[in-house]
From TrEMBL:
Pfam family, one: Peripla_BP_3
Protein origin, superkingdom: Bacteria
Protein name as annotated: LacI family DNA-binding transcriptional regulator
Matching Gene3D superfamilies: 3.40.50.2300, lambda repressor-like DNA-binding domains (1.10.260.40)
CDD domains: HTH_LacI, PBP1_LacI_sugar_binding-like
UniProt cross-references to SMART domains, sorted A to Z: HTH_LACI (SM00354)
Family annotation (PANTHER family): ALANINE RACEMASE, LACI-RELATED TRANSCRIPTIONAL REPRESSOR
Domain HTH lacI-type: 9-63
Length: 334
């Protein structure tokens, strides 16, 4: 017959084993002042012996906080999102907060539902790593807890902070790099109509026109459609492709490989995000680096400014990207 699980040790058990009061145990485990080193050592040893772990939820109820931040992201399969989450987790841990993760699965309705669930769990703030979340859902959530969007929502609701990179500037850096390599037939390839992709397209078009060239854009709904367009692109004389993100760029590398088109010998490819995949593919992908962990850390700082410091004015921070050249780009060849 299976044994029933033993009950979880409490702060009273720690006080009994250490031979001190419950209040002294609470003070010591919080790292508070007024506890002698010998008493603190006895209390710590007793807690370790019993396997006691403080109840963060109960402590949060006393403090009026749960000490948890919610993180909502569009796509767990996209390394850009998971890189931002890593920055959120680091900054949250440094501030003494835990993190709850919710996945929207690239579905706007599910994202709104997941956002509501995080708010119902009384998190102390939400970082939404997505520009897909419905504005009304963001507005409703922000009435109950601080909300920061990492990305570029089309119409940021009042009461919601945002942090993003300068998409147009990043695309401009990519075009400048390709122009320096002698490319004159540069095509912008996008699989998204979201504001970030549109900003990158505008940056591309401005930079290309500034060089006296004509912009060329290929827009498709899904990356798996790129194979059908790769051959016509090459046949049209394109020598360089700037993708709206790294996953689109990797799909272009795959299509070029299947066609037998050498990269960068015949075709140069640039991605955007500098996600972890950029350094793993062959050839290694030249990409515009969004400071992904820093985006996450900045989002946490903005949350805590509202939740802890009481800031009420909206903030919209923009971080500067930088190009990371690798082996997927090379000199243009006739």
């Amino acid at each position: 017959m299976p044994h029933a699980p033993s009950r979880r040790p409490t702060i009273l058990d720690v006080a009994r084993v250490a031979g001190v009061s419950k209040s002294l145990v609470s003070l010591a485990l919080r790292g508070g002042p007024g506890v002698s080193e010998s008493a603190r050592a006895r209390i710590t040893a007793a807690a370790d012996q019993l396997g006691y772990r403080s109840n963060a939820l109960a402590r949060g109820l006393v403090q009026g906080r749960t000490m948890l931040l919610g993180v909502l992201l569009t796509d767990l399969a996209n390394p850009y999102h998971t890189d931002v989450v890593a920055g959120v987790e680091e900054a949250a841990a440094e501030a003494g907060f835990g993190v709850l993760l919710a996945h929207g699965r690239r579905d706007a309705e599910r994202l709104a539902t997941q956002l509501g669930t995080l708010v119902e769990l009384n998190v102390d703030g939400v970082v939404a790593i997505s520009s897909w979340v419905d504005g009304d859902a963001l507005r409703a959530a922000a009435r109950r807890t601080p909300v920061v969007v990492v990305g570029r929502p089309e119409h940021p609701p009042e009461g919601v902070d945002t942090v993003a990179n300068d998409d147009a500037a990043g695309a401009g850096q990519a075009v400048a790099h390709l122009l320096d390599l002698g490319h004159r037939e540069i095509v912008f390839v996008t699989t998204s109509r979201r504001p970030a992709a549109q900003g990158r397209r505008r940056g591309y078009e401005t930079a290309v026109r500034g060089a006296g060239l004509t912009p060329r854009v290929l827009a498709v709904e899904h990356a798996d459609q790129l194979h059908a367009h790769a051959a016509p692109l090459v046949a049209s004389g394109a020598t360089a492709l700037l993708a709206n993100n790294d996953l689109t760029a990797v799909a272009l590398l795959d299509a070029a490989h299947d066609l037998g088109v050498p990269v960068p010998g015949r075709l140069s490819v640039v991605g955007y995000d500098n996600s972890t995949v950029a350094a793993l593919v062959r050839p290694r992908l030249t990409s515009v680096d969004q400071p992904r962990p820093e985006l996450g850390r900045t989002a946490v700082r903005l949350l805590l400014e509202r939740a802890v410091d009481g800031r009420t004015a909206d903030r919209h921070e923009v971080l500067r990207p930088r190009l990371v050249p690798r082996t997927s780009t090379g000199p243009a060849r006739p």
